[in-house]
Design goal:
BirA Bifunctional Protein, domain 2; alpha+beta; 15 helices; homodimer; eleven-stranded mixed sheet; Rossmann fold
Chain lengths: ~475, ~475
């Protein structure tokens, strides 16, 4: 490790400068490096291993619901991108254009996919003929490119990794059911695996995806009180089907348009993990996505038998993702590294411990120290990892709940946004103009109209007209 | 399945038109669809599931040797591509150029990566400082783009999926050892998992990778007697390190250049599986990469108890990748589909079988039928899958060996290439001009200088000058 020194230097305090704290963590925990390709990052082993654990567990959940993986081309001819009017308006301003193939200019330029609705539609048009071909529930894992002006590692970069599911169904009801099913799958994944509570709801007309009839979202609250959109699921109705001519012969022998959905989650989730769980010592990883769950750190490792015992312990803990740090650094240095990297449990083992047939477990999340007998350390570590996973969720939820406030009038709304930060729950008239005025005045956007509606009052918090929906507002990444 | 009819139509015989047979198989086995993005294919579920099994098993083997996965940007600025002279000459004519980001022309154009040596070098330049940072053994799974003129599904397409490993080492010896280690890992993978025998050897100067000091390759023989390069591993020495300035402080406190390697395998392997194992009924998949290993086909499924027994059997065979085809098609139709898709074992179960407490196993590779008791069907299926895997390798090896001939003089050489097809083993003088003349006269290129050298004669098969190496020649994909 060339960067040991930098790693154990103190990072910026999150209370002092949250944005700088974030940057310090992504760099010093070894998650990414900046590159000479502007707006694009290199994801290093410690970062990519988190993504692999996300992929594996999300993909398993997908497949349990009948999803099949496929791969579509990475380039989209301009004429294809233009077929659905709202969609091209949403994406054309922010795509990268390929105009030359080798030494020759292309007769038609192509963009690097910013998302693949148009490619899937072009594919489904030939692939689907009969009701027997439906539903199609396909997904791909790939990278996409959007030519963002301001970028930040994981949160907003010109290229990012994601999965994009694209489905086709015989009826509107079935498409809506799949849209909601995937949103709930995302929410459960965030809560169970990332230990991150989310609000499930629908985006407003203004905030929905380009070309969608309805966009559903899960919204999480970061440690600084800002919201992060963490996954979205779109119901396209038959809009794309009509634009692309995707028809099938139904059981009644009539030609009908399919109903479609799409849904995606991205490497942005790694940014969410950092900002929900991290602290002033660095990353704090939920055990289920920690590439290393247990780091064994030998104390006085030059003493006879210590390294042997550490290796023995690693074997005994083989059911977990476990490593021994037997490098020639000092234990204190190793502790700082393990904390910076967010490894959930540290096992300290030295000559005195060996003599007493024990070891010390140290929780990364609470720093609590627990002395355990070596005879039952595997059971104890297993239980502790489960406890940590559960406690991390509960702490994040308590933080989210204590930073969620109802606003009954406009003064309350502004006061909360300015002084309390976090989510504001408030009634809204349903008008885009009003939504825009709220954002202009406070910087807070509508995050979602939650599925779990509450009746806070009869009137819009901003304009006083009759209220249509309760909405979560917040400043957002 | 909209395409049932097409699927069970006879495909072109491979003896009549091998190229058309190949195209029929990739389409009718549902592996790919053509797209409106010229030269790029859509990989459908049946094709992508094979790739997922390749990825999983290859990645496990990588990690067992210390490989870590990372992700680099997909775009390469032109100035970066140009840093290593041979490399840019090799790739610049066949890359796709991005010239616009959104509405604005780029100040420097960037290509979609055709391979990522330059990006890894740019990364390693900052990432590596000290001998303690070495070795770096990184890999990425991604798609790359090369602007090919003639394309064929899996074998040569403008975009393809692959893995590319890029390593950095303190010494030349270590880099060479890693280059050979990965080539052997590839060879073992092809033989153990894809049941495909390969020749391991070194590429000639003419055929080596742009920028490499040495390229090693594994070469397989397809059913039509043509060779397919199936994986390559390159030793770059310190050439890229000098071009990019990748230096480290060694133990002796001196600044030194690193030594680098790269190695890759691609979706081309799926083409290899098709052309090594396929037959006139379609695909034949080795059990280890068969997304479905066992297809249970109920006979007279409307009779009471048949579907229940089929479902019961699926449970009993739960240790394998097993499905029941309980659609309303006829058994004969289902047999054809299962054969076209290359599923290794078909289980036939009907009322008479149930009465006799038995089922019939049918091997896809040999069509052999084996009646087994339902009590021990799980054991028998497990054994049979192993036998099929082994037999498929042995058959492919026998075919390869019977299509490999030694040529001691030029007449023999031409005769073999024209009449026998397959590999020609022959002595070679080591001159590029001679190698080119051989290719011009016969269409056969040097496939590799095998590690397992034989002394066939003292002189070059073509020019009669003193021989330096025994070489495998062949016409190739």
């Amino acid at each position: 490790m060339a960067n040991d020194k930098k790693m154990v230097e103190a990072i910026t305090s999150m209370d002092e400068d949250f944005a700088q704290w974030y940057t310090d963590v992504v760099l010093k925990a070894g998650l990414i490096a900046y590159t000479n390709v502007k707006g694009c990052m290199a994801i290093k082993p410690a970062g990519y291993a988190i993504w692999e654990l996300i992929q594996k567990q999300l993909d398993e959940r997908f497949k349990a619901t009948g999803v099949e993986n496929v791969y579509m081309p990475m380039l989209i001819p301009e004429s294809l991108l233009e077929k659905e009017k709202d969609h091209v308006e949403g994406f054309a301003p922010e795509v990268a254009w390929v105009t030359y193939g080798g030494l020759n200019p292309l007769t038609e330029r192509m963009c690097v996919r910013p998302t693949s609705e148009t490619l899937f539609c072009d594919f489904y048009k030939n692939d689907i003929q009969s009701y027997r071909d439906l539903p199609r529930v396909y997904n791909q894992w790939c990278s996409v490119m959007r030519w963002e002006k301001e970028t930040r590692p994981f949160l907003r970069s010109r290229e990012f990794l994601w999965q994009e599911g694209h489905t086709a169904h015989a009826t509107a009801e079935e498409a809506e059911a799949r849209t909601i099913q995937m949103l709930n799958l995302y929410a459960d994944f965030c809560e169970d695996v990332l230990a991150m509570p989310v609000i499930r709801g629908q985006k407003t007309e203004k905030e929905k995806f380009a070309g969608a009839e309805a966009t559903y979202t899960i919204e999480a609250l970061m440690h600084d009180g800002k919201a992060l959109q963490s996954g979205t699921s779109h119901n396209f109705g038959d809009g794309f089907a009509k634009a692309f001519g995707i028809q099938f012969t139904d059981k009644d022998n009539k030609l009908k348009y399919v109903h479609q959905t799409s849904w995606g989650m991205t490497t942005r989730l790694i940014g969410a993990i950092i900002m929900v769980h991290g602290d002033n010592s660095g990353l704090v990883l939920p055990p289920k996505v920690a590439p290393t769950q247990v780091m064994i750190i030998p104390i006085m490792q030059k003493k006879a038998g210590v390294l042997e015992k550490a290796a023995e312990l690693r074997e005994k803990l083989g059911a977990f993702r476990v490593k021994v740090d037997d490098s020639d650094k000092s234990p204190g240095w190793k502790f700082s590294e393990q904390e910076m990297r967010g490894i959930p449990i540290r096992v300290e083992i030295g000559p005195k411990d060996i003599e007493a047939n024990q070891a010390v477990l140290v929780r990364r999340d609470t720093r609590e120290k627990i002395t355990v007998s070596l005879d039952e350390i595997d059971t104890k570590v297993g239980e502790l990892l489960e406890t940590i996973q559960k406690d991390m969720f509960e702490r994040a939820k308590a933080h989210r709940d204590s930073h969620t406030h109802a606003a009954l009038n406009w003064d309350e709304f502004k006061n909360i946004i300015d002084n309390e930060q976090g989510f504001v729950k408030a009634m809204w008239c349903g008008e885009t103009a009003c939504e825009e005025a709220i954002k202009d005045e406070t910087g807070a956007s509508t995050r979602c109209m939650p599925f779990a509606q509450e009746h806070l009052s009869d009137v819009c918090v901003h304009c006083g007209k009759p209220a249509k929906k309760m909405v979560y507002f917040g400043r957002a990444y």
